[in-house]
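Internal ticket #5521
Category: modeling
Description: The requester needs a full-assembly model to guide mutagenesis choices. All entity lines are attached below as received. Residue total reported by intake: 675.
Assigned to: D.W.
Attached entities:
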Amino acid sequence: MCKTLKPMMIAAVISLCFIISANAEETVSINSLVDDAETYDNQKVTVEGEAIGEVLERGDYAWVNINDGTNAIGIWMKTSDAEIIKYFGDYKHVGDTVRITGVFSRNCTEHGGDVDIHSVAIEIVKTGRAVQDEISDAKIVIAVVLLCTAALITLIYLKITKNKKQ
Amino acid sequence: MQNIKTRYLSFYIISYYTGYIIVGTAFLMAIPLITSLLMGEWNPALDFVISMSVALIVGYLMMTLGRRTRKGEVQVDWKYGFIIAALSWIVLMFLSSIPYLLSGHSKSLLDGCFDVMSGFTTTGLVLTQDLDHLSTGLNMWRHILTFIGGQGMVVLALSFLGKHMGGAYKMYCGEGKDIKLVPNVKDTTRIIWKISMIYLLVGTVALWICGMFIGLKPLSALFHGLNMFESAWSTGGFAPNTQNMMYYHSFAYEIITMILFVLGSLNFGLHYAVWQGKKKELLKNIEIQSFVITSFALTAFVVLKLSQSGVYTDAVSAFRRVVYNVLSAHTTTGFGSVYAQQFAHEWGDFGILIMVIAMLIGGSACSTAGGFKGLRVGIVFKGIIADIKKILSPERNIRVEKYHHVKDYVLEDPTVKGAALIIVCYMVLFGITTLLGTFYGYPLAQSAFEAASVSGNVGLSIGVTSASMPAMMKVQYILAMYLGRLEFISVFALFGFVIGGVKKLCVKH
Ligand SMILES: [Zn+2]
């Protein structure tokens, strides 16, 4: 029992490692895509990044810009695919992390020479969230103190110049 | 004794007017403050309250120090305009970077100052991190900086506050803009603001509508429209997102911004003449001629080269990726429709060199653009032609050469010399900046590209500018942007004043 379980477990672990490493290998950073644009041109690639801004709908298809921290790129996808993205990154949100597989081109003839990826498959890896705007008390105190000082100095200035006039 | 007294008086004047401009800028911070409040961005709103208060404190203290100026005890002299302009830029650089620092998007004070200077000088290089998560308020502030930088913020502060317009025109000249549209200084600034405001309205609405068509939500289309207008009109080059122009994926958006930045790079004098119905000015003006010739030639060279090397084969791509970028460089805007690395990898040395030339020549004098300015290139070119004619003409008959800029001017040697001198200054600045880049190990072509971009206040990057570059280079770039924008003279005047002051003190003791 033990003898069969052990190899099976090892095999499972090894295959799991393979899956992880294979997945890791597949994803390429956006910046290296742009750096080696010639190599990746017209190749199928997988990128993973945060959807940012908002979806730019153009009929049946739409643009979604994603940023993986190294750089940002536009993804051309079906509008129905874009609809599964709930959060887009901006000041108040962390966008959904999406995993896109698609064809990269460094000079997309369909889009006026754009550097883009035409998505084949999209998957949400991590759902985004709304960001709480936390304000520290210290900041409020500093702001109030400075504001009062500024008001005081303004008043003093106005008083001095008024006296001078007379 | 008399000298020392005069120097104190100078100090009062400079302190008073610089303070005045700082107070004006403080009030300007109300715009992003209100935006943040309306958008419910509480942290940025507090950042602006803090920044505004600090600016008010500094500004009013300086005005209090120089309050004798107010009573008219001292005469405001021509030279002060230059010094005040140069000094205000430095003080404002620090004060305006406070919101950047408080937001946490700038890694250091130096990075914050870099971005503010880049905005003020309408350059457009960015060290601010993670632009995609910037608050609406801070984005507004970045673009306002670039907008008022383009209009000449000194004039803004003075016309905003209304009174004491006495030294305004002198200060306006201090920002490298030497025209007088109408005899009255106050009216000149009014006309410039009127022209800009009308374009602001038309341009923002055009971009707003276009933005909604390309899929932006109405409110964000408005913010994008306003920001992109300010950036285009002032030939700045900032954009609300990391991808700059590439965020929009739209030909129409590119066309509108292109029209706006070309208009922005034209002389205000020319705008005014055309508004008054002098349409012929468009054909006769030396700057228009110079701009059309150089942009046509430069664009043709790069398009030819890049289609030959097979990078862009179809006309639309060539227009959107090549013509757009060359014009963006030539008008010193800096909107990019390709990635920085693409310049390095795809454009080749020839493409990069052409871009360097385009960036160094720049737009028109008395516009929002940077660079040598078309007027100077035109004048020097005509000067050379005139000299050759002089040599070739058999008898020494004196021919008068003319050039047309709003009205006809006689081409005189001092004019040519003045123009040539500024061009030499730019070249020296460009040379030193390139040299420093190579010292830190960047390839020559890339160092030259980035150096031209900062000296000409362009803002396109080939990838050298990043938060991780050496601090010395950041400082040099800040200096280059500053010198390039103020066209040297103001800064030299400030140096002269400071050195003169130190000398006097040394003599005294
Ligand atoms: Zn495409």
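Resolution: model delivered.
Comment from assignee: Residues 2-264 of chain B form one domain.
Ticket closed.
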